[in-house]
Structure formats: C-alpha cells, structure tokens
Amino acid sequence: MNDLILGIESSCDDTSAAVIRDGRLLSNVVASQAVHEAYGGVVPELASRAHQQNIVPVVSEALKRAGVKADELSAVAFTRGPGLMGSLLVGVSFAKGLALSLGIPMIDVNHLQAHVLAHFIKDEEERPQPRFPFLCLLVSGGNSQIIVVRDTDDMEVIGQTIDDAAGEAIDKCSKVMGLGYPGGPVIDRLARQGDASRFTFSKPHIASYDYSFSGLKTSFLYSLRKWVAEDPDFVEHNKADLAASLERTVVEILMDKLRRAAKDLKIRDVAVAGGVSANTGLREAFKEHAERLGWNIFIPKFGYTTDNAAMVAITGYYKYLKKDFCDVTAPAYSRTTIK
Ligand code: KG4
C-alpha cells in the first residue's frame, strides 16, 4: 500500500496542511494567525485573508517535509465545517482545485470528528489508542461536548453546551481581566501559581449531560466588578488566584458530567480533545480520575489539541479506506453536528 492523503484545515484562524502515508503522519505544518491578538478575538475577515496568504506556502511546506510530490497523492481531505465560512471557503476551494487538477478523490471532513480522531494519529511517538466504544470530552473555543465514539464514523453527542463553550468562557473572563487573547494559555500559566479555593463562582444545575458556561462568565464578571469598585488594583493583586479559581470551576463543571456519563454508560476508556484539552488543570483531573476510578485515559499531544491538519488527514484516511468521497459541488458549512 502507498495511500498518501493530504489534509487541509482552515476552519478558524490556523492554516494547516499535513501528509499521511498508510495512516502514519509524515508532516504537519500549522501557520497560526497572530493578527487577531490586537483585537481580543478572531476577526473573520482578517482570518480569511490570512488563510489566502498562507494556504499555498503551508501546503508546499507540508509536501516538502513529507518528501512527497503533489502528483503522488492518493486523495485530498479538507475540513468542510463547522467553522467560519470565509475561512472554510479558502481551504475547501483550494482542496477541490488541487484534487481536480490531480484527478484524485476529494474527501470532506467534519472538524469535530477530526478532533476526536486526533487520538488515532500515528507519529514517531507510540501512544496507546482508545478502544471502541469510548467517551470523548471535546472542549474548544466553540464546543463543549460529550461524545460516545462507537467507531471512526459512528459518533453520538450525548451532551453539549446550551450556551457558551468552555474555551469561550475562559477567553471572555481573561479578557475582562485584561489578559489578552486567547486567554486559555495565560489562565493556565497563572493558575499554576494561584490558590484555586480562594474564590467561588456559580455553577449550572442541569439534569442532562448538557453543559452551560454563560452563568459562570456572568458570575465572574459581576464579582470582579464589585471587587474592582472596592480596590482598583484588585485584578493585579489577585490574578493568579482568580485564574486558579476560574480554572478549577471550569474543570469541575466538565468532569462532573463526564464522570456521570462514564458511570451510566459503564465506559472506562475516556478521551479528551480540542484546544482546552491543553489545560494543565483538566489534564490533572483526568489523571486523578484514572487513578481513583480506573479510567483508561487518552490525552492528545499538545500539537494535536488545537486546530491542525494531521487530524483532518487521519479522518480523511479512514474515509478513504471506505471510499467515502465527496463531489466537487460539496459546499462548506459553518454549522453542523458530529456524525
Ligand atoms: O480547538 P481550538 O484550537 O479552536 C477552536 O475552538 O476552534 O480551541 C481554542 C480554545 C481557546 O478558547 C483557547 O483559549 C483554549 O482553546 N485553550 C486553552 C488552553 N490552550 C488553548 N484553554 C485552557 N488552557 C489552555 N492551556
């Protein structure tokens, strides 16, 4: 076999391309867009423009690092959605044009499914893979979901946020503290030096496996306003404790539901995916659950937590094996669920 899949990711603010041969990763190039930092969030139009600047060099670099020529490719896989429409269109159109010009199949990939299948990326470092069925907590800037994964193409969302995503809430609280964008890594760094039990913020009461983070965000904002009114330097003097307490609350909310789902469904293989899975507190909570409850836990490598094309290429590879191709008319979609 010599199945060579090029994966292309452009759903938000990372332009990425990766090459996989027979399921093994040869290259994964990611160009992140620093342009958004000044605006405190992703500016869709600037993201589309940066994707247009980056897409050709990023794909060329991925092929070069893989030691592969474009005419050797077996198929081109691309993120079709969900994501920002203007960003998706760049990757989708480029992938279709390349596949057409090479006369090879094109494979549409669901971005959320790709985050879950990041656990199956094989690179130079051997890591155990989850066995089906497993639970995956998918936590990013746009999603907070609990997914039952029965196969590479059989996933069911059993719980999801009814308002903000976990990463979105962390980013907004960090913005209120004046810590810049994206807030997740800064909150993580500060939290390591803080007292996580110092402040208490509100937690949602929802009976199902669904999440909610807007109440926490509001509670954080109102508490901070009150404290800053009493002491204008409050944030400066307490930022490590604020970050640690915020992180603890988010992790507790996430783990409470995940623990319940794992118990109800009697599933002990539990994975985490998405940008927020880079969080140290969440990773520690997973390890603590593994020791206490006997979970087999699966935590992705840092590079595969945030948006990357390696996860698109591996998802594309599984679809390629099933000859699950799309045709040139397949549109990008900004919203969709996992399937
Ligand atoms: O999956 P992702 O790269 O992108 C999308 O959501 O599309 O996730 C980005 C999110 C942001 O909210 C970011 O603040 C968060 O992941 N994040 C973190 C950490 N690193 C990234 N949150 C908490 N701790 C981190 N170390």
Fold and architecture overview:
There is one protein chain. Helices cover 42% and strands 19% of the residues. It contains 9 helices and 10 strands. The strands form 2 sheets. The chain has a 5-stranded mixed sheet with strand order 3-2-1-4-5, with helices on both faces. Strand 4 (75-81), helix 2 and strand 5 (106-110) form a beta-alpha-beta unit. The chain is globular and about 65 Å long. The two termini are 28 Å apart. Bound molecules: 5'-O-[(R)-(carboxyoxy)(hydroxy)phosphoryl]adenosine. 5'-O-[(R)-(carboxyoxy)(hydroxy)phosphoryl]adenosine (KG4) binds at residues 12, 140-142, 167, 170-171, 182-185, 187-188, 274-276, 278-279, 306-307.
Key features?
binds 5'-O-[(R)-(carboxyoxy)(hydroxy)phosphoryl]adenosine; globular; alpha/beta; 2 domains; 42% helix; Nucleotidyltransferase, domain 5; 5-stranded mixed beta sheet; 339 residues
Bound molecules: 5'-O-[(R)-(carboxyoxy)(hydroxy)phosphoryl]adenosine
Tell me the CATH topology of the largest domain.
Nucleotidyltransferase, domain 5
Structural class: alpha/beta
Strand order of the main beta sheet, please? 3-2-1-4-5
Form type:
globular
**Count the helices. How many?**
9
So, CATH architecture of the largest domain? Answer: 2-Layer Sandwich
CATH homologous superfamily of the largest domain, by name? Answer: ATPase, nucleotide binding domain
The sequence of SSEs as H and E is: EEEHEHEHEEEHHHHEHEH
Q: N- to C-terminal separation?
A: 28 Å
- In helices, the fraction of residues equals 40-55%
How many distinct folded domains?
2
Which stretches of 5+ consecutive residues score pLDDT under 50?
none
Radius of gyration: 20 Å
Largest sheet: 5 strands, mixed
Given this structure, which CATH class of the largest domain is correct? Alpha Beta
Mean pLDDT: 96
Number of strands: 10
Our estimate of the beta-strand percent is: 15-25%
